[in-house]
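MODEL INPUT / OUTPUT PAIR
PAIR INDEX: 1
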Amino acid sequence: AIFSRHSKYAEGRAFYADIKARLASYGRAPGELLVLPAATFILGDTDADAADLAHQVRLQQVIDDLSADDPINIQYTSGTTAFPKGATLSHRNILNNGFFIGEAQRLSAEDKVCIPVPLYHCFGMVMGNLGCMTHGAAMIYPDEGFDPGKVLKAVHEQKATALYGVPTMFIAELEHPRFKEVDLASLRTGIMAGSPCPAELMKKVIAAGIEQMTICYGMTETSPVCAVGRPPADDGGQLRLAPSPPRPCGTRTPRGDAPALPAREGFQRPVGQRFQACGGQRVLHDLLVFRRPLA
């Protein structure tokens, strides 16, 4: 219940005076909150003050009802099982993943990230939106769908410092008829992910000026990134330009998976040898599997 002594309603002003007198024994003053078993009374000097306090109370109630481990997003995918499934991700899953991907690129409030990938996938939603939001970076959306010309135009006009995309997107941009007409000098980093990234393509992207381009490896079920092929200053370019196959997938992200191996063997395995990864904070909250194709 919200009451103020300057309410525009006579009944409200009268009730304010009455409730204030009755509750004086509780030691509450105007602008304070009193919670009784049957009701919550909010007393403010004005209607606006009382409404603002009510908003704060409601916000705190929502915060108290939430947990970092609550599911917040369901991503539909079929890449690892061939059956359509809903990978249910928690607040902790996607927020941490977005933050650490931003850290790997050294994003800051000075950056402008061009995001032509879909926002309904983890690439756009987590690596794109949350990576930027957790670092104060600007987000640039070139168009509703992918258009290589509009991506190049957005980078040129907005002076983007980072560019995201799957390998075929970068190929389309590099081969666009007007590629040489746009100024991409502002770009310093970005992410290439979603499918295997050819070494020759990465060399072309670096030659185009994106010297700190990174490669991310993972899957929707891991929120999505497990490992990052970092900029040259960190790995000498070896994780991004290694001959194929096999190719290292990068350095694992913090608070995530580690190979499940006997302690005496450590965590190092020969290149090309399989191992099992055990779960960390990025692994999905739940999995909804559809045994029949969805209409």
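PAIR INDEX: 2
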Amino acid sequence: PVCVRRLGGGKLNSIIQNVELGVDYFENLLGEEFCSNVQHWQFCGTKGDPVACSELYEIIVYLKNCNPDCIFSIHTNGGFRSEKWWTKLGRLLRGTPSFVVWGIDGLEDTNHIHRRNVKWNKLWANLNAFNNTGAHSLWQFLVFEHNRHQMSEIKDICKKLNIRFESKDAFGFGIQEKDGIKEVYPIEVFDKDGNFDYTINPHFSNQENVKILPIDPVRRKFTTGIIREYPEYMNMKKGQYDIDCKIGENTSDLYIDCDGALLPCCFIGAGIYTSPLDRQLQSQFKNREEFIPTEN
């Protein structure tokens, strides 16, 4: 529901154009010299699951040929492709440090609450097909109120399957401090027609200093377009704030969007479209064509 692709997990976001990069982008626009100097490729999928990319396998083969020592990390909800495809990818990556990050937020009875429309049987078959090749996997578990009780069982499963486990706090909640109380607006989830379905609470919802706010249909973001104006949004609304970015001076990272634009990070890649209050960001990157490489 927090993914930029769909509004609260429901209707397709109007900014999504269903474009993807093919192997020709890496061969002809980035080129072998550039690709051979990249040490780590992270396929994360800001606007969709990267495994849905039709030429992902071919892209990885090309990049691996450019630099046999580079590492690949591929993030997925596990619901795409066939067992045959995952076996082929596993055989390509086994014996290397490369790995797949499986975003699985629970078990069969809970994963679908946050991972909308992911079919458990298909996910489980794909994970095992890849894992059986001996390639490396990481189970990344976002913790919520509804799945926190399953963490111990999932750790046991990972140990049995020789899969690394990582738990993370989920984002997407509206949080503000008021008189020593942490007020939390839950994540709203919608169906494919844009109708409100249910809410998701954070894993710390039962703490004494936490108050889960009731949903507000009048100011519901994805049905009215009105943004709840928490204090931290005010400077963004004015378009005046200092940027403290981890990219640039501190790293040599570079984010490539699905249309080929070269940007500092995925937060900017998504934030250009998803932060209607963020005028400064939108102004800086309004001429998108300037960030897409050309053969010239």
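PAIR 2 NOTE: Confidence is low (pLDDT under 50) at residues 222-236.
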